[in-house]
């Protein structure tokens, strides 16, 4: 089963999506609308977003592309809900920068609280998986708490969704094809099998430090194949058997409007 | 998670905002891995599992083998509480968005490196008590003129004049609000004395700002 949050006919709804794409609301109402309909506004699928943990340099090939040694332990940074936006929404490119790239990532959504969780038990704590695009602005990197908040904590730069797939429906989260297209052209073509630290490892690692809670998310990093994105571009991040996440890039002025 | 925390949804902390500390570390910051001193505020989050309250016992951290860590440290900061949604404001207007002030203590492992996000050091459960209350903003005429003290078991260990901050409260709010939209109840811990204070199991820690209050916590594990 898949789970999402949408706005449809003016109502904000928690929905389940069956294998044959039938949409049922939490109240049991069947919605007569197709998943690709423009009548659906997709919200972030995590209803009460908690702490967002994101990994850097977590694919062997991405690590070599960026000329870093693969890390000996996870490189984890934190983001908050201000960065989140849904499927088919917009993300902005700041003015006067040279390099902003997408990062297509598998996301594990935490479903129950735990501390000191063993690797072999870790998936019991995962409600499901979704896809995110953890945009980065390389111009803003500084060597203090790198990747610093200016690079990774900006509004709208973590699209996520459209839905969460139940953990039990994914036999092996580390055997999934991962692709990104920009304006229909494939720019990233990888697999979650190249992940350095997998979800159970990361859950064991983080929960040795702190309690994980429902609504927390773990964004697991991206493989090689990152390219610059410009306003007007349509970026689609896809992970096999999970979902495809579409984002349209806009300028900083278009995004902020009156607040620009 | 502490149910009655004063923090809503976000606690942004500013590291390396003590001018004296920046000066002392300038040599190191011109070498690898930093290569040059920071040009922007150095920010980190204390996530929701860390939020706690005045009077709470602070758990003594364990290492990855489940053994008590050899050392912990604490810093204290003025906590600036956002009163209304704030997006891309100027420094001139920034204080209009502040509803009040409080104290934030940041218990952590000793700060050894600023190169990577310090998840191990900074994200310990209950390590960010906030309080004792939120003092209305109109009772503080100039937040940059305050002084933050830290006492351990009644002995003064740190005395930080906020006039010694690299960036003041209004400038920080402005810069952060250009990175992220802030919501009511979110907080910014604007600056800690560069020298964090070592603490031991069972220590009582009082963070104090005249006119804001005293935030008292005790280390566990004794």
Structural description of this entry:
The complex is a heterodimer of chains A (260) and B (222). Chain A has helices at 60-65, 149-152, 199-209, 252-256; strands at 2-8, 11-17, 23-25, 30-31, 41-42, 52-56, 75-79, 84-85, 89-93, 100-101, 104-110, 126-133, 136-137, 158-159, 164-166, 177-182, 185-191, 217-219, 234-239, 243-251. Chain A is mainly β. In chain A, strands 1, 2, 3, 4, 5, 6, 7, 11, 12, 15 and 18 form an eleven-stranded mixed beta sheet that branches. A five-stranded mixed beta sheet of chain A has the order 9-20-19-16-17. The mean pLDDT of chain A is 96. Chain A is globular and about 50 Å long. Chain B is built from five helices and 13 strands. In chain B, strands 1, 2, 3, 5, 6, 7, 10 and 11 form an eight-stranded mixed beta sheet that branches. Chain B has a five-stranded mixed beta sheet with strand order 4-13-12-8-9, with no helix packed on it. The radius of gyration of chain B is 16 Å and the shape is globular. Chain B starts with 10 loop residues before the first strand and ends with a strand. The model of chain B has no long low-confidence stretch (mean pLDDT 97). At the A-B interface, β7 and α3 of A face β2 of B. Chain B: Keywords: Isomerase, Metal-binding. Chain B: Residues 10-219 form the Fumarylacetoacetase-like C-terminal domain. Chain B: GO terms for molecular function: 5-carboxymethyl-2-hydroxymuconate delta-isomerase activity; 5-oxopent-3-ene-1,2,5-tricarboxylate decarboxylase activity; metal ion binding.
What is this structure's SSE topology?
The complex is a heterodimer of chains A (260) and B (222).
Chain A: E1 2-8, E2 11-17, E3 23-25, E4 30-31, E5 41-42, E6 52-56, H1 60-65, E7 75-79, E8 84-85, E9 89-93, E10 100-101, E11 104-110, E12 126-133, E13 136-137, H2 149-152, E14 158-159, E15 164-166, E16 177-182, E17 185-191, H3 199-209, E18 217-219, E19 234-239, E20 243-251, H4 252-256
Parallel strand pairs in A: 6-18, 8-14, 9-20
Antiparallel strand pairs in A: 1-2, 1-5, 1-15, 2-3, 3-4, 6-7, 10-13, 11-12, 11-18, 12-15, 16-17, 16-19, 19-20
Chain B: E1 11-15, H1 19-24, H2 26-29, E2 42-45, E3 51-53, E4 57-58, E5 72-82, H3 91-94, E6 98-108, H4 119-122, E7 128-136, E8 147-152, E9 155-161, H5 169-179, E10 187-189, E11 197-199, E12 204-209, E13 213-219
Parallel strand pairs in B: 1-10, 3-7, 4-13
Antiparallel strand pairs in B: 1-2, 5-6, 5-10, 5-11, 6-7, 8-9, 8-12, 12-13
